[in-house]
Known about the structure:
Elements: H1 2-22, H2 26-36, E1 38-42, E2 53-54, E3 57-58, H3 67-70, H4 75-82, H5 92-101, E4 106-112, H6 140-150, E5 153-158, H7 185-194, H8 208-226, E6 232-235, H9 243-252, E7 260-261, E8 293-296, H10 314-326, E9 330-335, H11 345-361, E10 379-385, E11 391-397, E12 405-408, E13 415-420, E14 428-431, E15 436-439, E16 449-455
Parallel strand pairs: 1-4, 1-9, 4-5, 5-6, 6-7, 8-9
Antiparallel strand pairs: 2-3, 10-11, 11-16, 12-15, 13-16, 14-15
Amino acid sequence: MLRRFFLIVLIAVIGQRDLSAQALSKDEKMAWWREARFGMFIHFGTYAQWGGVYHGHQQARGGAEWIMNRAKIPVQEYIDTAKNFNPVKYNAEFWAKAAKDAGMKYLIITTKHHDGFALFDTKVSHWNSLQASKYGKDLIKPLAEACKKYGIKLGFYYSQSQDWVNPGGAVARKVMAEGWPNPDSTKINAYTEAHRGHWDPAQETKTFDQYINDVAVPQVKELLTNYGEVSVLWWDTPMQINDEQATKLQNVLKLQPNIITNDRLKRPNFPGDTKTPEQKIPDRKELDGKDWETCMTMNGSWGFKSWDHNWKSSEILVRNLIDIASKGGNYLLNIGPKPDGSFPQESIDRLKDIGAWMDKNKEAIYATKANPLDEVSWGRITTKLNDKKESVLYLSVFDLPKNGTLSIPDLNAPVKSANLLAGGQKVAFKKAKSGYDFQLNALNGKYATVIKVTLKGQIKDKHFSGANMKTGELD
């Protein structure tokens, strides 16, 4: 009997050791993310059917994924429309491969956005792609498999507070003018003001605490249990949630001890691992040494908006990526698939352009750190150490000065070599009165030409601290 007792204790101790061995330090956990620098965001759900239009009215403000709230669509009407949701052209392998070919290292998908519609097999609500839509399938499972096949880290976006269909969910109040010119706007605005943003009595048949306990917590458990390794949990729009409720959600993360989270679970007591500036690239003066990732759209909407043709050029997108990397951040670039599950052609074209540039210049992006020198007028600078522990600078040239001279006034470490990253041709350089000058006669590629500069020895990383980065959602 005593022998059996010691055997049980030994098994328990070994089990605890195995569990602790799985948990990495913060730096170990963040290593892949800091090296990745580039990821894909996907906003997809039944809102794609509306395309930013409600009964002939173009949504007046905001991303198309907000149409239910901004247009004040009745809950039952929204549910009835979702019955026709049938993304027959959804191809998880195409999504994952498109990310890989563009040079992206991870992918984050909206498993449940603010309308509460789950793209996965959930047992706690009928409001999901299997039971509430014509499609009748789990969209997350094939995507998890495709990401694993193509070596893409998988992340889940989950709206933990807002839910406009599952009763009890929180609602960010938006005035009727942000949707369409409803003749009853005054009455509706008064109602939403009195009901914490809710516009339909069906939304208030349960309490927020019931929503957290009966929907949010169990759904996050399902996501972290049923789809293999999940690398990122991306919370959004923390509102109405208290510390106790946030703790319940955070405790579920123990199912995947090395998961990375952002700062949108609840502020300020749940900072997560990464800051999340949205639709903007921080200035250098905003940097504070913390890990950060800026999420941005290709046009003006996260979800598919049929009439938004204001697409950013491939040049802007590539230069955004370089700019972000030069400040030590990650770029999470969004795709809003069409109702049939296919990517808009404009997005596909831009992903291909980015991929072509990355194929030749990815060394200047992956595993780099922020520019350790002063900013330059002609482009951006990233840095890393090579195998010999020498500092390497990557000079991404956007605008070549007329005389072809690229000056770095504060570069005091001796230069060992300078070559074009694409092609390897030598670039002439000389010691100037202050720093170094590099001579480039012409740009050798689209969007940005990269010069790889190897130094003799190391230069110190620039230390950023004490700044106040604007982080969080715009809506």
